[in-house]
Each structure stands twice: as structure tokens, then as C-alpha cells.
Amino acid sequence: MCLAIPVQITELMDNDRALASAGGVVREIGTALVDDLQVGDYVILHVGYALSKLDEQEALQTLQTMEQMGALTEVTA
Amino acid sequence: MKYVDEFRDGERARGLAAALRQEAQPGRHYRLMEFCGGHTHAVFRYGIPDLLPDNIELVHGPGCPVCVLPTGRLDMAMRLVLDHPEVILASYGDMLRVPGSERRSLLQARADGADVRMVYSISDALELARTNPQRQVVFFGIGFETTTPPTALGILEARRSALDNFSVFCNHVLTPAAMQAILNVDPASEESVEIDGFIGPSHVSVVIGSDSYAFCAGQYHKPVVIAGFEPLDVLQSILMLVRQLNEGRAEIENQYTRAVTSQGNAKAQQVVQEVFTLRPTFEWRGLGQIPTSALAISDDYAIFDAEKRFAMRYVPAAGTKGCECPAVLRGAKKPIDCKLFATACSPESPLGSCMVSDEGACAAYFTYGRFREDALQRQSQQRAAVKARRQA
Ligand code: SF4
Asked: Atom 7 (ligand 1): residue with closest C-alpha?
């Protein structure tokens, strides 16, 4: 039940609610815990609530670091 | 799916696995605890142990809320629904299948006529209260720092809309306190587990921030790497831990920067602070009483506290005889060390809490790991031998 998934905001609604899509499945979620949400943002969804936004820049950076950490081996191996 | 697929890429996984094989020093044994059950699940689902050199061992931690709730607390919920026919108990699904005393689960109580409903979110429980004004709806609040802010929002919403037939049976627990309890186990004791570092929780850290683990590095000199949930996240975090250990560093590092900051989610922390207060102590399955490790509903919101509304009382109770969940939750035993594993106990008919939830170590072993039993058995024997040598 701790499993949380990334979903994309597709529509903002009243009362801190929004519609969000995960792999094509759209559902209503609570957004009271996250500020400044825009349509198109990705958030971590957990027990019906968005816990935080996902940062695209940071994600790309992480993937790059992974490649460097792995690639290093190929050079030195 | 974005933020998922790219973190499961096989090419990058091979690169990281190769780096791990190269950098793990042969004369050394690395014991890394993944605190969070979500990581345990990911580790087995993606076969991560197969990618690791033999001297990197993953120790499964207690970060599974259903698993650590002691039998006595489950019994309280059971008595509540059986003694109060006016109550609708609304619970996350996993909790319904955990055996309480005398091996009875909430699902069995439901079969006997108790009104127990499975909900996905506390907002479903609020809806039940609205549509059943003549009934009492009690939400079975369990979980670590990830589920606590939603529970707080639910209580705030109940107050706003004056839902006086709604209350919460609060069992929310705190991750840092449990990590500290694990680190505090006397190394000379039978139950001690040597841990070199932690793979830190993903979504708990989203809420509380990576700074919350500073004590692990400062006080205990154990490195922590906050890790995302996907297989590449876990592999990279293991590599970051191995590098810290090789270099003699003990720092809090954050691999999951796309979601976790050093300070966490201030808004979530603030609603939690508003609604909850620290319990002086709380019993955990496997870890016993841990001081200031759980939350209760604060006096300002006492009318939404089911424990007060229904005068619920905690009576400690033993789990199923022979079930090794307590030792499994401390990381002291592996699921296959339990005689009931895959014989009497399986996900279809769980005898202990660790076989119920996806995040439970026994369930993860059963679902994804059975064919690796032999390898694991060997590892477990090696561990026992190492420990015996250490104690000799
Ligand atoms: S296999 Fe079943 S009985 Fe054994 S420790 Fe795990 S949950 Fe408990």
C-alpha cells in the first residue's frame, strides 16, 4: 500500500482536486499537499493524494549520472 | 510511461551492475538494509539480487506498515467492529487479510457479519460517512509518513463539513524512530543484525526530506542513500553506498532528486503537525516498544479520535505461533528461515503480516523469489557462519 506511482495532471478542478492520468487511466485525485500545479505536471500519487511534483531536469540529470557511473567501468575494465 | 520506463532500461542496468562488480571489494561484505517494503518488492520483482556480486547482501527492513502493526492493535479494530454494530470500519485492503489473535482476520469478521469496507483513500471513507449519516464510520489509519498527511487532510475535512459520524483509529508510525531502534540493538545480542548502510525510503523522504536521516550518519556513522523506486534507482543507490563505504564516508546522499528535497514537503508536514501529536511510546511488531515512534490525534481534534470515542483499549497479543515475522522485520532472519514459509503460509492463506502485503518480505520472496530459494538458503547459511565466527 506504500506503492506510489507517477501520474500526469490532465485537468485542475475545484476544492484541491484534479484529474490525473496514469498510462491512460484517468482518476480524480487530491492536490491539497502540492502548490502551483499546472496541467501537464507529473506528480507522485499515493492513497489518492499527490505527494509532490516530479522534477524533469533532475530526472534527466539522474539518468545521465547513471550512464556516467556505468560507463566509467567500460573505460577502465 | 514517463518517469518509469527510462528507469527500467536494461542497458543502463548492465552498466551499473558492471560497476558494482568492479567496485565491490572482494575481501569485504556489504550489508545494506532497504528500510522500505516498496524497495523490498522492487528488489525481488526485478531480480536485483541476481545482478549483485555475492558480497553485497540486501537486508530487508521493517518499512511495511501492515507488517509492523502489532497483533494487539489489529485486535482492537476487530473488537470495535464486532462490539459496535453501528460501526462501518473503512480500511486499506491489505489490512483486511492480516491474521489477528486466533488467526482471525477482518475479512473473516466481515464474513461473520461485521461491516468492514475496503477503501483506496481516506476520501472514500469520508464519502461513506456522508452517505451513511445514521452509522459511525471509522477509518483504520495506518502507515508511515506517506499516508499520514492524507489522514490529516481527511480529519481537517471532517471538521470543516461537521461530519460528526466520522473518526480515525490512528496507527501512524515514524520512520526515523524505527531506524534508530534498529541501530540501537545491542551488537552482542542474539538479534543483532550488522548493517553497513541504508537504502533510504523514497516517498517517506518526499514528505520528511533527506535531512531527517542526519542522525544515521552523525550518531551512528552509517551512510544513507535515499533511493527512487525503480530498479535503476535501486542499483545506482547501492553503487553510491558501496562507494561511500569504500571511501570510509558516512553521508546522507539523495539519489531520488526528482522527487526528494532536503527539507521535504512543508505543506504536508504542516497538516500533520496541526492534527497529530507524538505518542510517548508505541509497540511495533518485531521491534517492541519504541519511544516517540508513532502519532496520536491531538486534543484539538479529539472528537475524531476513534480510540476515545469508543473507549478502545490496547491489550498486547502474540502473533501466530511459529511465525518469524518479528525476526524478519528486524532483518535478523530471512523469510525462508521460517518453517511455515510456503508450507502452511502463503499469500493465499497468510499466517503472518509479512505474507499479506506486497511490501512484506515474505510475500515478495514467495511471489518473485521462490526459484532462487537455493541461492538464498546458501546466503543465509553463510550469514549464520559469519555471525558464529564473530561471536566465537
Ligand atoms: S512465512 Fe508466514 S509465518 Fe513465516 S514469518 Fe513469514 S509471514 Fe510469518
From this structure: B352
Q: Which pTM was predicted? A: 0.91
User: What's the full length of chain A, in residues?
Assistant: 77
Q: pLDDT 10s digit of each residue in chain A, 77 long?
A: 557 889 999 999 999 999 999 888 999 999 999 999 999 999 999 999 999 999 999 999 999 999 888 865 444 44
- Best probe of the A interface among B35, B44, B121, by most A CBs < 10 A, is B121
Kindly list the structural domains of chain B, giving each domain's residue range(s) and its CATH number in brackets, ordered by start.
1-392 (3.40.50.11740)
Domain-by-domain residue ranges, chain A?
Answer: 5-72
DSSP states along B302-323: GGGBHHHHTT---------TT-
Q: Does B333 touch chain A (CB under 8 A)?
A: no
User: For B372, which DSSP code?
Assistant: G
CATH of A5-72, one of 3.30.160.100, 2.30.30.140, 3.40.50.300, 3.40.50.620: 2.30.30.140
Tell me, yes or no, if B227 comes closer than 8 A to chain A by beta carbon: no
List helix spans (H) across chain B.
10-23, 37-45, 48-51, 65-68, 71-83, 106-111, 122-131, 148-160, 175-184, 203-208, 214-218, 231-246, 266-275, 306-309, 325-330, 361-369, 373-391
Q: What is the ipTM of this complex?
A: 0.90
